[in-house]
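Forum > Structural Biology > Help requests

Title: Can anyone predict the 3D structure of Na(+)/H(+) antiporter subunit A?

Hi all, first post here. I have the sequence for Na(+)/H(+) antiporter subunit A but no way to get a structure on my laptop. I'd be grateful if someone could post the structure tokens.
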Amino acid sequence: MGPSLDFSIALIAIAPFVAALFAPWIKHFTGQLAGWILAIVPLSIFIMLLGFIEPVSGNNVVVAALPWIPSYGIEFSFFVDGLSLVFGLLISGIGTFIVIYSGGYLAGHPHHGRFFSYILMFMGSMLGLVLADNIFTLFVFWELTSITSFLLIGFDHSRQAARRAAIQALVVTGGGGLLLLAGLILLSTMTGQNSLTGLLATAGLAQSHGAYIIALLLVIGGAFAKSAQFPLHFWLPNAMEAPTPVSAFLHSATMVKAGVYLLARMNPVLGGTEPWFWILTLFGGVTLLLGGALAIRQTDLKQMLAYTTLGSLGLLVLLIGVGTKEAILGAILYLCAHSLFKGAMFMIAGTIDHGTGTRDITALGGLREKMPITFIAALLSVISMAGFPIALGFLAKEEMYLAMTMGLWPDLLFLAVLIVGNSLMMAVGLLIALKPFLGALKPTPYKPHEGSLSLYSGPVVLSVLGVIAGLFTGWINANVLNPTGASIYNQAVDASVYLGFPITEPKVWASIATWILGGVLFWKAEAVRGALRRAGNAIGWTFDIGFDATMFGLVRLADGVTRFLHHGKLEWYTLVMFVVLALTLYLPMLITGTAPSIPDFPILTFYEWGALLFAVIGLAAVLVAKTRLVAIVALGIQGFAVAVIFLLFGAPDLIWTQFMVETLSVVILALVMTRLHLDQRDHREPALALRDGVVSLAAATGFAFVLLSVLQTDLDLTLTRLFEATSAPVAHGRNIVNVILVDYRAVDTLGEISVVMAAGLAILALIRLRAKPARKPSTPRARRNA
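Reply #1:
Sure, ran it for you. Structure tokens for Na(+)/H(+) antiporter subunit A below:
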């Protein structure tokens, strides 16, 4: 079916920014209820998006576009299909509980209202990104996610670690954004389309273009930076310096999923080729294994969850790279499952920290009686994270294993990678869900206590949804997998995912192997953690250390370049400027062979010879001047000579303007130089004078050649006729010169006036700051008399 119009899509993307504007005042006037009140905004967006399920399930695309830069065909446009709808529902649904959770977690924080503004802007940025149609609209929201995440990660800006993590995230994701912009522009040039709907309609065109590999690498580079794929993975764990609500939102439904969204969206446009397949599967597989191994190596709950997110992102990238129908369906199911259980588990980790004062898993135990609701939510979350029946995570795992058991090489290799990666993440999930709650109660900084309703409502709802969703496979097939799979797979998909455990199928044996290996890793977690730490210490180098070294080198390089180019020597600045000017004037004529012919010297009248002699006398006076002051006054002679030339050729307006400018310039400069004692003689070495003279003559001769070239072209009277025809009726002025200055080039004239004003203020400041003569010390008697 064709697209239908619905401008409420634009409202969905804009509403969180409007709410962010008023969030501090709402927090100020409503206090502890602010989280519940502000959560109405994402909840309303979620309900609004639910209304799109029916048309999208019927393979309809809902679009909305507003003019932005019409001359370039750029619109502020949005659209909803299966893929954007799934992401939109996850962002707004989980965002509702994140806002509620923030109200309880940061209660009493002096900047609580500001935090609400940041988190709502973050939500709006991600919603705009997944709903954007025009590629430039997408890029704007893509960069907004980086900017708002910078504000959130560095929210506790008094800590150096938070500031470093925020800058690191901004540098990596911002650099990736530049790669993406270049890739999107190149794709637009290759296909003639500047919208995602247009790119999807011309799917297959880009792959046949000669610049395909360049566009592919640029887009993948942007996606890898945002979704923290190896080797750009190091920024994501450091982002845990952000408050826990940010971590929960960042890892479950927002920024780190943006790269996955982009790769899924671009699968019909760039996918289906060998480079796409191997780049995504290899880097995704490495990221999956690296994330799982580093997760089990940690003891901080948030760091453990952060590295499992890294592994999950690698898993999703690997499945998108494989690109079969089953792999795509497995990626969609895992995307939804991961968003639910990861959002819940991050909030659980924050609640544990809030209730005990520590996130160190080795210092926690016996909390099941003190925090029973949090314990139940943790158990339900790990059921989906481990892929146990009947959870949504079980359906996702079965479908991805089905995709890897339908062939031989390299599917069997990918199957082994998935089993090992899922086992590592299962072990970490079991550690987080069981270790803090079972066993004897350990002493903690705070007396353990259950969180408030705002803290446990989100984990309970999300974890319950993650488990019971597996019971509604019919609805999921029709309303989630079919439309979303069609968006990624670029053809109709008839999903048939079901809740079953056919023991004879290879995918079931892969699941059993995952559970066994995950159980063993959980049982031997201490030994595995120790071995991994020893291996890490033996290597001694990390990409995080490499980032610091790169930034240090970049700063040193910038410092060196600055010292070389901006050394503070005005004489050298002026010399370089005029050398470059001379080259700019001569090189085009030399390269193109368009040097002008030298005209014959004209026959001059006596008064024309007088004006020329006047100018020569002024030039000689400048050259033989003994002091700067005399040189400036002599330079004014040149200006008066030019005014006389204007007089001879009938330009009275220019005459008076030139006279006034020259007179004021000479007077002001003379006044300033005498007040600042700058009228002394310049001592110039003969070699320096010769050098400067050669450069000045070269620049002057170059200008003369350019002017001769202009005069030897045909005279174009188009502008002259335009000014003559429009000066009186349009600009209401009969003096064409004045009309040009104040109407046709008004902005230019305003700029000139601004420059003169700035120069005047600078001169005034110099005069006021000049050194005052030292006062003679007064005698004691003089002081007594005073």
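Residues 782-786 have pLDDT under 50 and may be disordered. Strands lie at 4-5, 62-69, 74-80.
Shout if anything looks off.
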